[in-house]
Design brief:
By secondary structure, the chain is an alpha+beta fold. Helices cover 30% and strands 21% of the residues. A hairpin with a 2-residue loop joins strand 2 and strand 3. The chain is globular.
């Protein structure tokens, strides 16, 4: 694991008033009661065991060398606060820093903020910033940079706001203001509490950008000049490449590597061939079809980070047929998750219990979910009014493993009397149809960028979320929404875990989706790559400041 300087102050616990404590206990008791009722409706599925792969022991660090990281695409601009080509998103962690970091299981550690306090009411977060930190152009890092980096995202009338800055709802929701107390002290003032605020601030969109760059180049051109405080310094955008060099003045210590190149190789087979030939050193997101080939090559190393991704079969609850709750429950029982794991993920996945994966706060290994039970599925199908079966359409993307997964689901549902017509579309057409709520069923996956349940449940299943309306045709403003927001606001971890369990139990009962499997991110490296962080890569984050290359 990488060593992170320990903060000098101890974060203060949020203290609740006696009235708030009594209210919190009452809410928990009510939701646990609801959860117990929900859970009794479902047989227990076997709780998955997720064991991330660890590489071999590392030796003495060796400075120097260039690491070439292969991805499917690279663009010629880099804005850490928006979705881009994967190569550019992965480079964000090399060029920029966040106030706090999550580089070890269950830990929030100092980043650009070396310490922080939280007010007793959970509304004010005071961050004490590192001194003597500079942006790559020599500009000083101060509290004003934090203020501008955050305000430009959630203030739509800010002079540096652009339509591409749309991720502030992932970590700056219900923000009242950002206050600069002095050059090295900044406050984040909330309108309401958030138990996961620190976890949410590890999102790459919370990276601190350079105000001098915005002023010099303007908001539209600044992404072509990515100047942060991170361990590597931007060198150039080249055709299909993004080049960076080590930052000798990095506050966390100079990286061992001299350079990092993010190289685009769109074809999966070509990426594997380049790895085998030693032309590139590492890649992620490799399809399971290539696992065996990689494992048989002694020059390559296949590792897996913890599961942050969930694959699901989504239902359009607004569809006249799929608005039937018992039908959706029947379909949830009908899918053989073990078969999906073996055929699609080469055994490197586990059955999903709910929508929150094992590596995310809020995961409950004892959650009672849908086990594979065709008999129960047929019984519910009859209760739903379809004893003789029915016909449905499943919309799938045409790329990677989606058509094969659609066929597996088609076969499973046929076994209970449901005829499935598969509609296969390219990604653009797929999202056009699903986004317009013109589908019946669809298959997809979801993976968060940070390890907080807010990023999973709120954007997908709360009634005000666009995805809930478009993809699932689902909303429960009177039941699920209050449960979710109580869980989001709860600062006490033990109470919050119970609340998130109740939320997932309610989702299992409503069944807007059949949660299929949790799968890890595969990481392939050349054997000479040492101390690579699978924990970071599991969350689509690239931490290379403590990586080195053997001769």
């Amino acid at each position: 694991m990488e060593k992170i300087p320990r903060r000098r102050r101890v974060q203060k616990e949020v203290k609740m008033s006696a009235w708030a404590k009594r209210l919190g206990i009452l809410i928990v008791m009510m939701l646990v009661a609801i959860g117990t009722t929900v859970a009794s409706c479902l047989p227990a599925a076997e709780a998955p065991t997720v064991t991330p792969t660890k590489g071999p022991p590392v030796g003495v660090p060796r400075p120097g060398g260039t690491l070439i990281f292969a991805v499917d695409a690279v663009a010629d601009s880099l804005e850490p606060a928006t979705w881009q080509a994967w190569g550019n998103m992965l480079a964000s962690d090399l060029l920029f820093d966040t106030l706090v970091q999550s580089r070890e299981e269950g830990k929030i550690t100092p980043g650009l903020a070396e310490s922080w306090e939280i007010s007793p009411d959970g509304l004010v977060y005071t961050f004490h910033l590192r001194r003597n930190v500079k942006f790559h152009d020599g500009s000083p890092f101060t509290a004003e940079a934090v203020k501008i980096s955050f305000e430009r995202q959630y203030m739509k009338d800010h002079r540096y706001n652009t339509p591409m800055l749309f991720q502030s709802d992932q970590f700056l929701w219900a923000i009242k203001e950002i206050k600069v107390l002095d050059d090295y002290t900044v406050q984040l003032v909330r309108k309401e509490p958030s138990g996961g605020q620190l976890r949410q601030l590890t999102h790459m969109a919370a990276s601190i950008v350079n105000p001098v760059t915005l002023e010099k180049y303007g908001k539209d051109e600044a992404p072509r000049h990515p100047i942060g405080t991170g361990p590597f310094v931007f060198e150039a955008f080249r055709p299909n490449e993004l080049a960076m060099k080590a930052n000798p003045d990095y506050w966390g210590g100079r990286p061992y590597l001299d350079r990092v190149i993010i190289r685009a190789i769109a074809d999966d087979a070509s990426r594997v061939a380049a790895l085998a030939a030693g032309e590139v050193d590492a890649t992620i997101f490799l399809p399971a079809d290539f696992y065996k080939q990689v494992q048989q090559n002694p020059k390559l190393r296949l590792q897996f980070g913890a599961s942050l991704s969930v694959t699901y079969l989504g239902f359009n609850c607004k569809d006249p047929v799929l608005s039937n709750q018992k039908l959706r429950q029947a379909l949830s029982y009908a899918v053989n998750r073990k078969n999906v794991i073996d055929v699609i993920y080469a055994g490197q996945a586990v059955p999903a219990l709910g929508f929150i994966p094992p590596a995310i706060f809020g995961y409950d290994p004892n959650l009672k979910s849908y086990a594979y039970d065709p008999k129960k599925a047929k019984e519910l199908l009859a209760e739903a009014g379809y004893p003789g079966g029915l016909e449905l359409t499943l919309t799938s993307q045409s790329e990677i493993h989606w058509p094969k997964l659609a066929q597996l689901i088609q076969s499973d549902l046929a076994a209970i009397g449901v005829k499935v017509n598969i509609e296969t579309l390219d990604s653009s057409a797929f999202w056009g149809k699903v986004g317009a709520n013109k589908h019946q069923m669809f298959i997809n996956d979801w993976a968060g960028i940070y390890r907080d349940p807010y990023g999973y449940i709120v954007p997908n299943f709360t009634s005000g979320a666009a995805r809930a309306k478009q993809r699932f045709g689902y909303g429960s403003p009177d039941v699920l929404d209050p449960m979710v927001w109580n869980a989001v606001r709860e600062a006490d971890p033990d109470k919050a875990l119970k609340l998130w369990t109740a939320v997932q139990e309610r989702l299992l009962l409503d069944a807007p989706a059949a949660f299929l499997v949790y799968y890890p991110v595969p990481i392939v490296t050349n054997a000479r790559v040492q101390n690579f962080s699978t924990y970071g890569a599991a969350g689509k984050r690239l931490y290379l400041d403590k990586v080195w290359l053997e001769k």
